[in-house]
Amino acid sequence: QIMPPVMGAGAFLMASFLGVPFVEIIIAAIVPALIYYGAVFLMIRLEALKCGLKGLPAEELPKKKDVLKKVYLFVPIIGLVFTLLKGYSPMYAAVIGIVLSWLVSLPSKENRMGPKKIISAIHDGVENITLVCVACASAGIALSSVSLTGIGQKLVSLVLAFAGNTPLFALFLVMIVSLVLGMGLPTTGAYILASALGVPILAKLGYPLISAHMFVFYFAIISNITPPVALAAYAASSIAGSEPNQTGFTACRLGFLAFVVPFAFCYDPGILLQLDFIGNLMGILACLVACFGFAFAIIGYINRNLAIWERTIFVLFSLMALTPNNTLTLVGSAGVIGSSIIFGKLFKKDKGAPKCDSIE
What we know:
The protein is mainly alpha-helical. The protein has one domain (8-55, 114-346). The chain has helices spanning 8-18, 22-51, 64-68, 75-85, 90-105, 115-149, 151-163, 167-182, 187-204, 209-222, 231-240, 244-254, 257-267, 277-299, 308-321, 326-346. It starts with 7 loop residues before the first helix and ends in a 14-residue tail after the last helix.
């Protein structure tokens, strides 16, 4: 949902709300998504090292030659992205993607789509679209209610009154509103509701509109891994056979940086590629360094287990790296890099058994 180029229906709605081409939404969303997924990969990697987990032996891995033979399966995605980037309508791009998906299925006997599979795919598509239609219809009713009753304007005034001259507090309040509205709803409906209530507040505080929309969009999605209604995490727990609540909190912990990135691009639009080259580069690098620092602090491991005071230092420097003050950003970034070198390289690696917190 947050990774370009597709991003689900929410991205098309965002382009419509902002009155900009869909390509601009893709460009703005790509860096935060890459940072988030890279950070999650880093945290899982650190957790695996901390728990002493090993990768699959080479003989159990698929052969590169066999994998490369299936590279043609990317053709539908490439075709979909190409048509969107060329400015064609989402409906036309979807038709191209469907036709290409059918064409690439023909060479494989196992995956070839004959009349029976085509009818089954149409049936599944109709079933899935009903959920989106119901969510959008419900969201439309809710939006009309918000507009006619004036609740939206009252909420804006209430949040601004609570926040006072502290925009960060207002961001926290909008985050909570977006998380609550997104609990149990499909992404599209959650985003529509959250944008109707949250975006006017952030716009009133002077945040760029694209940052405001991305902020509520992220938190409407993050509600899927945020207890107590972490639907995605609970679905994963049923597959893994694990305890639902523990899985939900573990998902929230490993996905913690999804809570950080939206705050970062609200304070530094360079992360959304909205500034000049130098501004964009500085914002991206500072956010990357901060994410590394938060990852070390949350997992508590580099090449050994970190003490509480070491993790606290990483948190403080990471927060400094994300501040809008250039001096503090440089100090925080240097602090994260220096601390990772000192704590990770100059101290001896643990000789005892690894200590694992979240994997049993």
